[in-house]
Amino acid sequence: xxxxxxxxxxxxxxxxxxxxxxxxxxxxxxxxxxxxxxxxxxxxxxxxxxxxxxxxxxxxxxxxxxxxxxxxxxxxxxxxxxxxxxxxxxxxxxxxxxxxxxxxxxxxxxxxxxxxxxxxxxxxxxxxxxxxxxxxxxxxxxxxxxxxxxxxxxxxxxxxxxxxxxxxxxxxxxxxxxxxxxxxxxxxxxxxxxxxxxxxxxxxxxxxxxxxxxxxxxxxxxxxxxxxxxxxxxxxxxxxxxxxxxxxxxxxxxxxxxxxxxx
Amino acid sequence: xxxxxxxxxxxxxxxxxxxxxxxxxxxxxxxxxxxxxxxxxxxxxxxxxxxxxxxxxxxxxxxxxxxxxxxxxxxxxxxxxxxxxxxxxxxxxxxxxxxxxxxxxxxxxxxxxxxxxxxxxxxxxxxxxxxxxxxxxxxxxxxxxxxxxxxxxxxxxxxxxxxxxxxxxxxxxxxxxxxxxxxxxxxxxxxxxxxxxxxxxxxxxxxxxxxxxxxxxxxxxxxxxxxxxxxxxxxxxxxxxxxxxxxxxxxxxxxxxxxxxxxxxxxxxxxxxxxxxxxxxxxxxxxxxxx
Amino acid sequence: xxxxxxxxxxxxxxxxxxxxxxxxxxxxxxxxxxxxxxxxxxxxxxxxxxxxxxxxxxxxxxxxxxxxxxxxxxxxxxxxxxxxxxxxxxxxxxxxxxxxxxxxxxxxxxxxxxxxxxxxxxxxxxxxxxxxxxxxxxxxxxxxxxxxxxxxxxxxxxxxxxxxxxxxxxxxxxxxxxxxxxxxxxxxxxxxxxxxxxxxxxxxxxxxxxxxxxxxxxxxxxxxxxxxxxxxxxxxxxxxxxxxxxxxxxxxxxxxxxxxxxxx
Lengths: 263, 291, 264
Fold this sequence. Notes:
The complex is a heterotrimer of chains A (263), B (291) and C (264).
Chain A lengths: L11 E10 L2 E11 L4 E5 L6 H8 L7 E6 L2 E2 L6 H7 E4 L11 H6 L8 H9 L4 H11 L14 H15 L3 E5 L7 H17 L3 E5 L3 H7 L2 E6 L2 E7 L5 H9 L13
Parallel strand pairs in A: 3-8, 3-9, 6-7, 7-8
Antiparallel strand pairs in A: 1-2, 1-4, 4-5, 9-10
Chain B lengths: L3 H4 L12 H21 L12 H14 L13 H32 L5 H4 L8 H20 L2 H8 L7 H25 L3 H9 L4 H40 L2 H10 L3 H29 L1
Chain C lengths: L1 H8 L1 H17 L12 H12 L6 H37 L7 H19 L2 H12 L3 H25 L4 H8 L4 H35 L7 H10 L3 H30 L1
Helix pairs in contact in C: 4-5, 4-7, 4-9, 4-10, 4-11, 5-7, 6-7, 7-9, 8-9, 9-11, 10-11
C-alpha cells in the first residue's frame, strides 16, 4: 500500500476556498489543514456545506475562489486520472454503483484510473487484476458475492462493494459522504468500523461527513462543525462536548439534521 | 437424447431455467449470421457492386441529375411553377395525414375499452362476462391484424374499392394506425389505477358515467400524445401510399421517377421534408399543450 | 397578453384546433366524384369472401414460407446495419465523450439534424433512390432500411445515453476514470436494457418495412403480394398476409417477453 509514503507535510491545505450557487452560498471562504492519517468527521445540519466541502476535497467540483492543495499539488491542475486515483477515493450515501454490472466489475472500476482505455475494455470480457478485487472483497467481508449482479445486493452489501472499490483504488485519502445515511444503526456501526480499520491499517487519511454522534466519538480523531457554509468549530474529538453539538444544530432551529443524542 | 438419469449425480434434476435475455442475444446473433449468409450467397446481391467504380459512377450520375446536371431546359427547382404545383400537392398531402389520424383516433375511441385486459376480466367497469371475453378477443385480433399489415399493402387493397384520391390514402393509413393506437390505448387502460373508478361505481355511477368521469379523463392525455406521435409517422408514410395512386406528393413522386423527371423529384422531396419537419413542430407544440 | 396565453394553454383551444383541422381536411376531399368507384362494391365482396378462403395448396404455402424467410432475412440484415449506425451517431449526438463548450454544441446539433434528415425520409423512398442509383439488388433495400432505422435508433440511443442517472458516473469519475471509461463501465451498462428493448421494438417495425420493400422489386412477401394482386388472386394475397401477421405476432411475443425480463 502506497499511502503516506510521499512527503511529510499536511495531506490537505485548503486556502480560502469558497463556493456559491445562484441563490445560496454553499461554502464561505474556508482555510484549514488536514494532516496525514487523521480521521476527520464533518458534522452539521443539512445544507451546511458538508457535501460541497467533500466534493471539493475530492476534486469533483472546483472552488469559485481559493485552492485545494493535496499532497503539495494544486487539485485543479491535476491532469491525469491516474495521479488523482492514487490520491483520493470517495464513497457516497447512495453507494453509486452501476446496478447492471457484476460485483467484480464494480470493484474493478476502482482500477479504471490506472488502466489504459484498452485494458478497461478487455477487462469487461476477461477481468484484469482479479486478485485485487478478491482480496478487497475479502477484507470488506463479502467475498462470496463476487459474481453476483450488484442490483441483487442489500444496501449494506452494496456499501461494502463500494468500500472494496475504494480498496482496489488504494488512494491516500478516503472521502466518505454520509456513508451510512441509508443504513440501519447496526449496519452503520459495522460499515464505519470497517472504513476506520481500513484507514488505520494502511495509514490512510479519512474524511467523512456523518450525522451520528456516537459513531463520530468512537471512530474519529477530529471533528469539524459546519453551519450555513461557515466553520463553527474545529476540535479534537475529546474536546467536543454535547453542548457544542447541541448548539451547532439548535442555533438554526433546524432539527432535520437528525442529531442522535450521545448514548 | 440424453436422459437426466444418464447424467447421474453430476447434475441436479432441476432443469436449468433458460435466460430470456441470453437466449435472445444468441438467437439474434445466429439470425444475423444466417440472414447475411443467405443474402450474400444469392446471385446478384449488389454487395460486390457497392464497391465497384461503375456503381459509384451511376450513383453520382443519379445525384447529379437530381441536382439538374445535364437536364434539358431549366431544372424544375428553378421554376416557380414546379414549386407552386408541389405546394398544392403538399397541401393535399397534409389534409390526407390529418384525415388518417382522425379516422384512426375515432375508431380507436370507439373500440379501445373492450380491448383492455382489465375490462375483459371485469376488474374495471361492468358488463356481461359472456360478452366481454369474445369482444376482447375480437378487438385484440383486429388490432393485431390491422397493425401487422403495412400501410402500403392496405392502400393496395383499398384502391380496389375506393376511387383514387386522398380519401383512399387516408383510409389505408387509418387502418394500420388503428391497430397501433388501439394496442397502445388498451395498454394505457390496463395500467389504470382501478380505485377512482371503483369509488365512482360505489357512488352509484352507471357504466357511461364511469367511462366519462373515471376512465376517459385518465386516458385522454396519453391517448392524445400517442395520436400526435402517430401523426408524425403518418405524414412520413403519406408519400408511400401515394405510390399506389392515393394522390398527393407520393403519386407525383412515383410518376416523376418513372419518367426520369429527376429535377421534379428534387422539388417533391424538398416539399416532403418541409412537410415532415412542419408536422413534427406542430405535433410537439400540441403535445406540450395536451400535457 | 396574459389572457391570450391562458387561451393558448387551455384544453378547449386544442379541441378547436383539432376540429378545425378535421373540417379543413374533409373540405379537401374531392366530393364531386363518387367515393366508391364503379365495381368497388363487388371488389369489396370478393375481397372479404377470400379472407375466409385463403390459398392453402402445398406449393403455394412453400412459396409463402420462402417469401416470409426472405422478408425476415432482409429485416435482420437491415437492423444489423442500423444498430452500428445508430450507436456511433447516437454517441456523437449525445455529446458525452466531448468536453462541454461551443464546439460540442455545434457537433451535437449537427449530428441530431443529420439523424433527423435521414429518418424523415421513408425507407421506401430511400429504396427507390438506391435502386435508381445502385440498380435492382437486395443491397438497395437493406441499405434503405439500415439508413432510416439507423436515424431512428441513433436519436433514441442518444436520449437514453444522456438520461442515465448521474450519481454512479460521478463516482466513477471521482476514482479517476476518463469519459471513455465512464462510458464503458457506467453509461452503457446503465443504458443497455432500455437500448435493447427499444431495438427489439424497432425490429418488429423492420419486418413490416422489409415486407413493403418488395414493392420496389425486391423479393419477399411484398413482391409476392403484388404479383398476386396483379392477377387478382385475392385468396393468395390473404395467405401471404396471414404469414406476415404470423411473424409479426411471433416477434411481438418475443420482444414483450424480453422487455418484461429487462425491465424487472
